[in-house]
């Protein structure tokens, strides 16, 4: 009788805890409890103490005889034991656009978090292709043998004048292949963002195989390669093992290896492409990066073939890599009329100042650190771009030569929310001008071609005239640039 009432109340939506007798249950009238303080055997009408998932994101469990509901920020998952638990959205930091397999558990982060048990559906968790990545697939559709592990490389934290000690980090999205004794490729997959990978393959019994990681991100969401001077991907291989062996095959490229920094270069491209995606760029064009230790190529980007060249000295120079990726973004998703040529930060053609300065802004905005840094043995050089001012002249016109540093400084001032300047902006606001207005300016003012004047025009076209006063304080007051505040977005009061 008692249980029946509880079940009725539950389906009617009442709180189960209301049924707990006050004072410890000694007046519940049932008389059949072995202990008056113990909750009834099924007080929650079938909802187990270990919890159960009622939807992809809702978990219910029975606690002290009461049904508790939890809305998971990521997903509700059920373990092999049957127990349910919430997984937070933070699991996606280790997943990436191609998903992740942990045994036969598949995790996908396409919008929300989805965690599924492939085995429960009679399937296996495996890599499909570079667009989809990991998925639950029919076991017969993949190789009979399986190898899994984690690929990593050693990062060195970049600060002005200093490269930190080597520190292992996952090779996010890195390419992994299985080669046989004749170096024929038996399987190719991509690692998840925590560096884990799973490969299925077929090989004759007893054959010797080995796992090799390459400096390439194969995901269509992050198409990037890092090549050596001969045009080949950098590679790092593990020791041979017998086909079918199930021990994890983990790889770690040391920073002391001659090609160790190739994965740092690649990681910057992954970061930049994820940042582009967050800015609304849906389809990414491949970038072909070239880096080899000791190569004296200088660092530059070439739009004709989307090739990005990093000097042999710039392997751990994240800011230099991101600046060059900023040129890739100008080429594909924004605009620049940079005439090119040597530049040293002194006042130059404003189109060059825009090309170089806005590329530097990309690096500053992605890192949220206001330093251009070019490290080399002995410390290299750096420029602080938040407090330092490379001002123009109020006596010059809007077409005057300006410093690329001023462009980067001014753009970063419109990006940082609480910097030492009059404007409290965001990456979204500055990015909107960079990605939406600059490729399609409503007027050609200042020097013909894209320069800082188009950026300022675009600021008011995209964001209206509410910021006239703080922008005037920034542009005239701090940078002494004689912008007329009469662009296509309207006339500032
Ligand atoms: Zn540049």
Can you describe this structure?
This protein has about 500 residues and is an alpha+beta fold. Among the domains are: about 1-85, no CATH class; about 265-490, Neutral Protease, domain 2. About 20% of the residues lie in helices and about 25% in strands. It contains 8 helices and 29 strands. The longest helix has 18 residues, at about 350-365. It binds zinc ion (ZN).
The small molecules bound here are: zinc ion
CATH class of the domain at 263-491: Mainly Alpha
CATH architecture of the domain at 263-491: Orthogonal Bundle
Helix and strand content put the structural class at alpha+beta
Helix content: 10-25%
Strand content range: 15-25%
Q: Point out poorly predicted stretches.
A: 1-35
* CATH fold topology of the domain at 263-491: Neutral Protease, domain 2
Supply the number of helical segments.
8
Number of strands: 29
Biggest β-sheet, characterized? 9 strands, mixed
> Averaged pLDDT, please?
90
| Global shape | globular
User: How many angstroms separate the termini?
Assistant: 78 Å
């Amino acid at each position: 009788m008692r249980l029946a009432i509880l079940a009725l109340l539950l389906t009617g939506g009442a709180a189960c805890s209301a049924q707990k007798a006050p004072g410890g249950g000694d007046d519940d009238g049932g008389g059949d409890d072995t202990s008056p303080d113990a909750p009834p055997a099924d007080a929650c009408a079938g909802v187990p103490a270990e919890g159960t998932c009622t939807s992809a994101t809702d978990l219910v469990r029975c606690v002290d005889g009461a049904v508790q509901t939890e809305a998971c920020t990521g997903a509700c998952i059920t373990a092999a034991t049957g127990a349910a638990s919430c997984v937070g959205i933070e699991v996606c930091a280790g997943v990436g656009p191609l998903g992740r397999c942990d045994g036969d558990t598949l995790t996908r982060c396409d919008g929300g978090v989805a965690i599924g048990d492939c085995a429960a559906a009679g399937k296996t968790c495996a890599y499909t292709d570079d667009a989809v990545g990991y998925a639950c697939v029919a076991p017969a559709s993949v190789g009979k043998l399986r190898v899994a592990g984690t690929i990593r490389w050693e990062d060195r934290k970049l600060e002005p004048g200093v490269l930190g000690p080597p520190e292992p980090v996952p090779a996010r999205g890195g390419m992994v292949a299985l080669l046989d004794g004749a170096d024929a490729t038996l399987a190719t997959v991509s690692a998840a963002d925590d560096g884990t990978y799973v490969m299925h393959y077929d090989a004759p019994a007893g054959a010797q195989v080995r796992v090799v990681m390459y400096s390439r991100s194969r995901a269509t969401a992050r198409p990037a390669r890092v090549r050596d001077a001969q045009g080949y991907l950098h590679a790092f291989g593990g020791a041979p093992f017998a086909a079918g062996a199930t021990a994890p095959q983990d790889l770690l490229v040391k920073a002391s290896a001659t090609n160790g920094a190739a994965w740092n270069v690649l990681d910057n491209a992954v970061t930049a492409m994820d940042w582009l995606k967050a800015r609304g760029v849906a389809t990414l064009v491949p970038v072909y990066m070239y880096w080899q230790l000791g190569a004296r190529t200088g660092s530059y980007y070439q739009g004709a073939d989307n090739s990005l060249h990093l000097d042999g000295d710039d392997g751990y120079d994240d800011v230099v890599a991101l600046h060059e990726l900023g040129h890739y973004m100008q080429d594909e998703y924004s605009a620049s009329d940079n005439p090119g040529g040597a530049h040293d930060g002194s006042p130059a053609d404003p189109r060059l100042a825009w090309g170089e300065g806005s590329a530097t802004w990309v690096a500053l905005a992605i890192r949220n650190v206001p330093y251009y840094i070019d490290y080399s043995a002995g410390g290299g050089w750096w420029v602080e771009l938040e407090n330092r001012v490379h001002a123009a002249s109020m006596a010059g016109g809007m077409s005057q030569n300006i410093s690329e540093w001023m462009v980067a400084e001014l753009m970063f001032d419109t990006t940082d929310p609480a910097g030492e300047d009059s404007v409290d902006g965001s990456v979204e606001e500055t990015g909107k001008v960079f990605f939406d207005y600059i490729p399609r300016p409503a007027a050609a003012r200042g020097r013909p071609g894209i320069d800082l004047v188009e950026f300022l025009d675009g600021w008011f076209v995209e964001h209206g005239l509410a910021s006239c006063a703080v922008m005037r304080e920034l542009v005239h007051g701090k940078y002494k640039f004689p912008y007329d505040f009469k662009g296509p977005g309207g006339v500032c009061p």
